[in-house]
Amino acid sequence: MRERVGKWWHALPDGRLQCDLCPRNCRLRDGQRGYCFVRERNGDHIALTTYGYSSGFAIDPIEKKPLYHFYPNSAVLSFGTAGCNLGCKFCQNWDISAAKDRHRLGVEASPEQIAQVALENRLPAIAFTYNDPVIFAEYAIDTANVARQQGINPVAVTAGYISAAPRKEFFAPMAATNIDLKAMDEDFYWRVTGGHLRDVLDTIAYVHHETDTWLEITNLVIPGHNDNPAQIEALVNWLANELGPDVPLHFSAFHPDFKMLNVPRTPPETLTKARQIALAAGLHFVYTGNVIDPAGSATYCPNCQTELVERMSYQITANRLTSTGQCPNCHQNIPGRF
Known about the structure:
The chain is α/β, with parallel strands linked by helices and 338 residues long. The chain has three domains: 4-48, no CATH class; 53-297, Aldolase class I (TIM Barrel, Alpha-Beta Barrel); 306-338, no CATH class. It is built from nine helices and 19 strands. The strands form five sheets. An eight-stranded mixed sheet has the order 8-9-11-12-13-14-15-16. Helix 7 packs across helix 8. The longest helix is centred in the last third of the chain and has 15 residues, at 229-243. It starts with a strand and ends in a 19-residue tail after the last strand.
């Protein structure tokens, strides 16, 4: 089950095949692999070579994705494959995202088997995570469709680096997504990730305006790279203007990893400042992650400021939302899936 004919490619006049899944548009001769390493030219087609195999499974709290407004305090079956179409120098899952062989894919699992595991464990959601599900889109879409038939919510944790046509098919079955907006800076994107900002912004706008997929945004704050207050202001102002005030934003702390071992951890006060900038810009739900910060982990009513959900790490310690997702004090509707 390791190979499946890919859906998004076309032939070029010079005999190469162009992969149209992501903005890289890799152009391949027979036997060549794309940047992601898992999409390979095989004769007259491009194949997804990792279909049906995973690097592993785990049961996580949904808050770990992070999704704070999507069935809080529920559990999710998480899995990924190998490879990635970005080259983030700070990647915290680099051992699988940068894998250049198949030894990471030790678990065989069809879409039907994955859904069955979620059913047997009474898990309401399946998350495509660890590496970016964009590169195993056919596998993720098939699994998402089977999951939805079983009443299970598919969740995509992604950097959003995907082209327009496959973007529609990829997000169509997804019940929720967290998209990683790494910076509001093209130079940062190219220098640190090897990708381009505009494509990610297009994906975020598309999901918000054109789909019913619940959306949350994460920004990993890296000292000396994207933590300048002016950069934070640019990011939150774009979110406020393009998405409105109610899409949750997570500022996450960086820790040294992969090719950025000499960069220090993000100071908690940097995240607090970023959160203050975002709230001042009019965003209603702004969180800090990878640090102990009760205020930055809690959900507050944007109308009366009642503390609605208290969190410690990924655990909910108090939930005052009504069963329909309202503030019990002023009856304000809180955006999300509850």
